[in-house]
Amino acid sequence: MFKIAVQTGGAENYMGVDFAYKVISEAGFDAVDANIDRLWSYGDIINKKAPGFLSAASDSEAMEHFNPWRDAAKKYGLENYQAHAPFPSYVLDKDGSHNALILNVLKRVIMGCDYIGCRNLIVHPFFLQYNERISAEDEWNTNIEYYSKLIPTAKQYGVTICLENMFSGFRNKVIEACCSNFETAARYIDTLNGIAGEKVFAFCLDTGHALLLGRDIKDAMLTMGDRIEAFHVHDNDGLNDQHLAPYMGVQDWNRFVDGLKAIKFNKTLSFETFNIWNTVDKELCPSMMRFIAETGRMFARRAEA
Description:
With 305 residues, this protein is an alpha/beta fold. It has one domain (3-303): Divalent-metal-dependent TIM barrel enzymes (TIM Barrel, Alpha-Beta Barrel), CATH 3.20.20.150. It is built from 14 helices and ten strands. The protein has helices spanning 11-15, 17-27, 42-46, 59-63, 67-76, 97-115, 136-149, 151-157, 182-196, 207-212, 217-224, 253-262, 276-279, 285-303; strands at residues 3-7, 31-34, 79-84, 120-122, 160-164, 167-170, 173-176, 201-206, 228-232, 268-271. A hairpin with a 2-residue loop joins strand 6 (167-170) and strand 7 (173-176). Helix 7 (136-149) runs parallel beside helix 9. The chain starts with a strand and ends with a helix.
């Protein structure tokens, strides 16, 4: 039976990293999606404020910022299966200096992944939101260029970089974004691995993002196939990116399980359900975490039947 994981976010935001790993372990998970993206927040990236760990004098000093996730994983016997890089990966930047800084941060985050024993890093595609969007050709070229610059570091530290299906929005309407077309996403990964000369890139399938855009989840999985190395499993109402537990929204979870079975998935199934910590009373959250773990076990059992 494949392993079950959940992100540290939510619990981590509430009471810190150690608390998150403790709750995750007690809920019955095997592994985590480490939210090391908190080392450089979305707001700080947008406002062009440099992260502290980038300015560390040495790599070893920079790695100290990753100790909470490394230490907690060892303490509670959990695998750091995947992690989330800071995002956005790309911003509107006239002289390119801030995007160059983001790229350097991503390289150090790859090092941090290796330091905490994590082999899969989700790095959002390099794209702009709807009002700032560039042409499809420029977006393709930008992604190939920027992801390619991460190849030497990823190879050196043995970390697989996972692209993710994204979405944007305009006037309260969800709009397609980079990698939301799964045929294009597959072409990205195949092209980048061709450039790398080996498997350096894979895919993180976000079930919630697919749902927002009306994508059939099984068809998405069939298109991506064994390129899928990671998951962001969560539910929503089909209108908002709510990051809820399965069955709290409108996703067809039987179809999802059929997809797992069809691609013979045998890796680690990870949930990105941080928002339960904002949805129900905090006293109920550990029970919700157990519910999510039990749901994952059920998915695994049915997919492997």
